[in-house]
Amino acid sequence: MVAVFAGGGGLALAAMLAGDAPKQASISRNSKMVTYAVENWFDVKDQMAHLWPLHWEEVAVNRDQIKLDPDFDTYASFANAGMLHIVVARKDGEVIGYHFSIVRPHLHYRQSLSAFTDIYYIAPQYRTGRTPLRLFEFVEKTLKARGVQKMFTGTKLSLDAGPLFEHMGWTETERLYIKVLGE
After folding, report:
1. At the topology level of CATH, where does 2-167 sit?
2. How far apart (Å, rounded) are the C-alpha atoms in residues 183 and 65?
3. What string of DSSP letters covers 17-50?
C-alpha cells in the first residue's frame, strides 16, 4: 500500500455502478471546482501518469534500492476482471489525485466483498480544505454501491493520514513492517 493524502473497471464495474450508484460528484469551494468520478483504467492511465513519479518521490521508502516500475499488465488484468476501482479527482479537467482499490471477496471470508487500497494520492497544492476528505467519502460511497462490505487501507508514517481516517470512522487494527532482502 502506498499512501499519501492525498477507475479501472471493465464491464463488471460498469454493470455494478449502473442505476442509482454515484458515478461522479462535484464539489465547489471558492469558485474552485474539484470533481470526483469512478474512471476506467484504460481511459485514465495516461492522464494520471504525470503524478506517479511525484507520488513515488514523496512516499516511497528504499528509493535507492527499488525503482518505480508499475506492473501495467496486472492493472489491465484487474481492470478487465472488474476488480480495479479507480476514483479520480480532477480540477479543470486535469487529474490532481486518485485512489485505487482492488475489489474482490476476502480470502478468509469468501462471502464478504472487500476493497484493498493499492494507492492514493492528491498533488500537494490540492491538499487543502476538504479535498482529501471528499475523495475518501466518494471512494467509500462508490465502493458501498458495488456491494463492498469492508475496506482496508494504510498510511505512511512519514505522511500520516491516520487523523483523516479516524475522523471518518476508520479503526486502526494493525501495523505493517517492511524489510528489504537485498544483495
Report:
1. Aminopeptidase (3.40.630)
2. 10
3. T-TTS--EEEEEETTEEEEEEE--HHHHHHHHGG
